[in-house]
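Private note to self, pasted from the team thread so I don't lose it. Backbone tokens:
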């Protein structure tokens, strides 16, 4: 049996009191339950805030939304993934939703990329720099490809320029 996010050491817990989870009471029946885990690491909240603010919503609204549901504007980056079983692995996304992704070598035509990487021209972009720009540059998830095809700029400085071989973002 595969339970994403299951932590055996933390799950063996017995109590004699009732707990509330959301709005539904949960009574103790002397059973063993999987541990509840926080699926909102700081980077999930940051990704949510970036997406929310990019939609033109207020900072206050975005803060409240992303603190209560960090998956509302999630980037799709997994928080954690289970083992690769027959080419598929179950991953937990920001906020606790799960998704199945393919794993194992990725066929890129004339070459293969390791699990988690993406095809990018003649090479591969690693999972922590998943965007392939201009067919050979890999940008991190918190950056964007420059429209001029010369690298990456951070999300807060989206304009790109290449003047006399020097790359600028503003």
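Design output:
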């Amino acid at each position: 049996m595969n339970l994403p996010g299951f932590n055996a050491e933390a799950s063996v817990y017995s109590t004699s009191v009732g707990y509330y989870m959301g709005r539904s009471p949960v009574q103790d029946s002397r059973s063993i339950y999987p541990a509840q885990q926080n699926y909102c690491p700081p980077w999930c909240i940051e990704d949510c805030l970036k997406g929310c603010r990019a939609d033109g919503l207020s900072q206050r609204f975005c803060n409240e939304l992303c603190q209560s549901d960090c998956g509302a504007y999630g980037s799709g980056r997994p928080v954690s993934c289970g083992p690769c079983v027959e080419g598929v692995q179950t991953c937990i996304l920001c906020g606790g939703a799960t998704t199945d992704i393919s794993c194992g070598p990725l066929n890129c035509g004339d070459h293969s990329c390791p699990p988690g990487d993406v095809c990018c021209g003649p090479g591969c972009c690693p999972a922590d720099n998943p965007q392939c720009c201009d067919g050979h540059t890999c940008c991190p998830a918190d950056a964007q490809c420059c429209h001029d095809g010369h690298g990456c700029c951070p999300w807060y400085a989206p304009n790109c320029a290449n003047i006399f071989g020097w790359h600028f973002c503003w």
